[in-house]
Write a structure and sequence with these properties.
Blueprint: E1 2-8, E2 11-17, H1 23-30, E3 49-52, E4 55-58, E5 72-74, H2 87-94, H3 104-117, H4 123-132, H5 143-156, H6 162-165, H7 185-190, H8 196-200, E6 208-214, E7 220-226, H9 228-231, E8 236-240, E9 275-276, E10 282-288, H10 291-298, E11 302-307, H11 314-318, H12 344-350, E12 353-361, E13 373-378, E14 384-388, H13 394-404, E15 411-415, H14 429-441, E16 445-448, H15 451-456, E17 464-472, E18 478-487
Parallel strand pairs: 1-5, 6-16, 14-15
Antiparallel strand pairs: 1-2, 3-4, 3-5, 6-10, 7-9, 7-11, 8-10, 12-17, 13-14, 13-16, 17-18
The protein binds FE2/S2 (inorganic) cluster (2 copies).
């Protein structure tokens, strides 16, 4: 530990912390300045940008030991407040530059760094600045962000006023087709919008922090799980394994069973005990006083595997000699034939033009900025309550209630502000782990993925292998189509 004497947002502060700690963690965890967001945590996305002596710095990779005394640090909280906005924040609101808003504090701080040294940038210079400082936005497409910086620069140069760019309510009061600012934009541009991890930092002291023990193999039988060393690690309260879920260790998707589906939706355990089905499958959940302690203990859980063939593509898993990944459920478990019109073979034979080809679309991670995060607790009416970034609240609600055998009125799901999703956040697994943690320990439990877990253990846009054959008549009119699509949900 060491004392650091820093000027933060114009206030001299003495901060006692571990010199190895990152500036982002000190700002957020110790000083409560949660306007600085942490996305990737590895210096790649710019969400955590702050100004250090006027320079834009990614605080998630900035060690405290590298910051000399009397350094001036400016975070989003030091740029403007909801009742005293900086022109950049006003322009961000007006141009719709804060959509999910998770990137907004980092971008606004970065834009301030630019305009402080170049009050009259070109659009190219703005774009180049964000590129150089690795400010990434997954929602907007960047045009609105550059528009906002250009307008803010004009205000700062005195060419226009904040009032000039403010939204004016149309006389007829109709908002359709206008640039009416989204209601949550003010909180997003000032860093006062609390996303999942900001809320985790504000939970009561008795909150347990959970870390998953993820399988580091793709397909295997589990021979043994040894938690004895991990249980002795500092801060550990409970390590949950399949044995704690006797009779409830089924991720209950049974409501999704469909007539053509040979999978009844009950083929996955909550925690693996016999088999690993995919890389990252959770084998245990470590609940500890801090996230760091939980993660350190999770590393000490020993799992012995018997490796099985890893099928890394749809065609490999669909091959006739491939073993069943989920015993009792065929690997090709859902077929949806769509057959219309006449037999295509004879048409193809006679058609003057026939083309065919095979195509592959790769797996697509959504690469949202805010990794998976949420928490659970029992509320004062005895309801198991989960705060989540889920897009479809009914989904975790039904899966938790079926998995744990709770009546639906004893489960409540509340949506946190979401640092984007683009569809990945349909999977209710993390909510089930949070709920299980609270169900077993009786205490509030928070779960926060790091970006590696976000990448390998959340839903993705599925890869597809497609074969297509098209026939056309002499005028180019399409007359027949054979189309086979293999969707890899593995
Ligand atoms: Fe720091 Fe991504 S660069 S959170
Ligand atoms: Fe930029 Fe969502 S608004 S990442």
């Amino acid at each position: 530990m060491r004392v650091f004497r820093l000027n933060i947002n114009g206030i001299k502060r003495n901060i006692v912390c571990d010199p190895e700690e990152t500036l982002a963690n000190v700002l957020r965890n110790q000083l409560g300045l949660t306007g600085t967001k942490v996305g990737c945590g590895t210096g790649q996305c710019g969400a955590c940008s702050v100004l250090i002596d006027g320079k834009v710095v990614r605080s998630c990779v900035k060690k405290m030991k590298s910051i000399p005394d009397n350094t001036e640090i400016v975070t989003i909280e030091g740029i403007g407040t909801p009742d005293n906005l900086h022109p950049i924040q006003q322009a961000w609101i007006v141009h719709g530059a804060a959509q999910c808003g998770f990137c907004s504090p980092g971008f606004i701080v970065s834009a301030k760094g630019l305009l402080d040294q170049n009050p009259n940038p070109t659009r190219e210079e703005v774009r180049d600045w964000f590129q150089r400082h690795r400010n990434a936005c997954r929602c907007t497409g960047y045009v609105q962000l550059v528009d906002a910086v250009m307008d803010a620069a004009r205000i700062l140069r005195g060419e226009i006023t904040m009032e000039d760019i403010a939204f004016k309510m149309p006389e007829d009061g109709r908002l359709l087709g206008t640039k009416y600012p989204r209601p949550d934009a003010l909180a997003k541009v000032t860093g006062t919008c609390d996303y999942g991890h900001d809320l985790v930092l504000k939970l009561p002291e008795n909150t347990l922090h959970m870390a998953m023990v993820n399988a580091k193999v793709s397909h295997a039988n589990i021979l043994s799980v040894d938690i004895s060393e991990a249980e002795k690690m500092p801060g550990v309260h409970k390590i949950i394994t399949a044995a704690d879920l006797e009779g409830k260790n089924v991720m209950a998707f049974s409501f999704m069973a469909m007539p053509n589906n040979k999978n009844d939706g009950r083929d996955r355990p909550v925690l693996c005990d016999k088999k690993v089905f995919q890389y990252g499958d959770p084998i245990a959940l470590v609940c500890a006083d801090t996230e760091e302690q939980a993660r350190a203990a999770a590393e000490k859980v020993k799992v012995e595997y018997e490796l099985l063939p890893a099928y890394m593509s749809g065609p490999e898993a669909a091959a006739p000699d491939a073993m069943e990944i989920h015993p009792g459920v065929p690997n090709v478990h859902f077929e949806l034939p769509v057959i219309k019109g006449e037999e295509t073979g004879p048409i193809m034979e006679k058609a003057p033009y026939v083309v065919e080809g095979e195509f592959y679309v790769q797996r697509q991670p959504h690469l949202i900025l805010e990794p998976e995060v949420g928490f659970a607790y029992i509320d004062d009416e005895g309801v198991l309550t989960v705060h989540t970034k889920s897009l479809v609240l009914a989904l975790p609600h039904i899966v938790i209630s079926l998995t744990l055998g709770l009546p639906p009125e004893k489960v409540r799901i509340i949506m946190n502000p979401v640092g984007a999703s683009f569809g990945y956040k349909l999977t209710p697994n993390p909510e089930v782990y949070m709920a299980v943690g609270t169900y077993i320990t009786g205490r509030p439990v928070a779960l926060h993925y790091d970006y590696a877990q976000q990448t390998y253990y959340t839903g993705k846009r599925a890869p597809m292998n497609t074969y297509a054959k098209l026939a056309a008549d002499k005028d180019g009119k399409l007359i027949a189509l054979e189309h086979d699509v293999l969707i890899d949900h593995g």
